Amino acid sequence: MFLIYFAIIILIPLWAQMRVKGAYKKYSQVPSSSQMRGAEVARKILDDNGLYHVGIEETRGYLSDHYDPRSKTVRLSSDNFHGHSVAAAAIAAHEVGHAIQDQEEYAFMRFRHTLVPVANLGSNFAWILVMIGIFASMSNMLLLGILFMAGAVLFQLVTLPVEFNASNRAMEQVVSAGIIRNDEERETRKVLNAAALTYVAAAAVAVLELLRLVMIYTGMTREE
């Protein structure tokens, strides 16, 4: 039973990563009709929304694209910064979607920001406490580890509406700005949906792990 469980929590993220890489590889070879580079897409959408103060930078790494709310900067990986593809436009627009959320003080994004310290603590200390609790048969220690982990899981769950909302904003922006044509909407959405799968997979695995530990804790307290 445990072998099946561990196979599932390993396979879910791997499957999501394969979907993302497959979609990105395919649509990074499809040039957009506007022929705009990812950096140009990001700049146009930012300017259209009055976000002239938000910068755009090239960053190293594969699919390392992100929005930094502290420095108000959209960072695009080299392929997407310079690329003219549908995938580059989709990802650039998605990251700008986060900048728009930040400007509008989108509730879920603000909530996620408040959870960052809790998530960091959960990621760093939860498993240490869990292992001590399990191997030393200390239910209180295990419970503390579960509580820390619950904070990290909550962060993962709150991330989902933030990412889906950013993708929805991205689609609206690239269509209204004429960056993609109507016949490119399906391809653009495939890139955005594939990227969202990684967050869904991460959240699903986190919830499964939390439930497993709760079951272990329940069994331990019954034995006591």
Q: Which runs of at least 5 residues are low in confidence (pLDDT < 50)?
A: none
- Can you give the helix content as a percent range? over 70%
Structural Rg = 20 Å
For the residues shown, what is the average pLDDT?
92
Shape: elongated
Question: How far apart are the termini?
Answer: 25 Å
Largest sheet: 3 strands, mixed
Structural class: mainly alpha
Instruction: Domain count, please report it.
Output: 1
- How many helix segments? 7
Keywords: Hydrolase, Membrane, Protease, Transmembrane, Transmembrane helix
Protein name: Zn-dependent protease
GO molecular function: peptidase activity
Transmembrane segments: 115-135, 142-162, 191-214
Descriptive terms for the model:
75% helix; mainly alpha; three-stranded mixed beta sheet
Task: Walk me through this protein's architecture.
The model has no long low-confidence stretch (mean pLDDT 92). This protein is mainly α and 224 residues long. The chain is elongated and about 65 Å long. It has a three-stranded mixed β-sheet with strand order 1-3-2. It has seven helices and three strands. α5 packs antiparallel against α6. It has one domain.
Summarize the structure.
Keywords: Hydrolase, Membrane, Protease, Transmembrane, Transmembrane helix. The protein is mainly α and 224 residues long. Helices cover 75% and strands 6% of the residues.
Structural topology:
Layout: H1 2-27, H2 38-48, E1 55-59, E2 66-68, E3 73-77, H3 78-82, H4 86-104, H5 107-135, H6 139-176, H7 185-223
Parallel strand pairs: 1-3
Antiparallel strand pairs: 2-3
Helix pairs in contact: 1-7, 2-4, 4-6, 4-7, 5-6, 6-7
Organism: Mesobacillus campisalis
Transmembrane segments: 115-135, 142-162, 191-214
Protein name: Zn-dependent protease
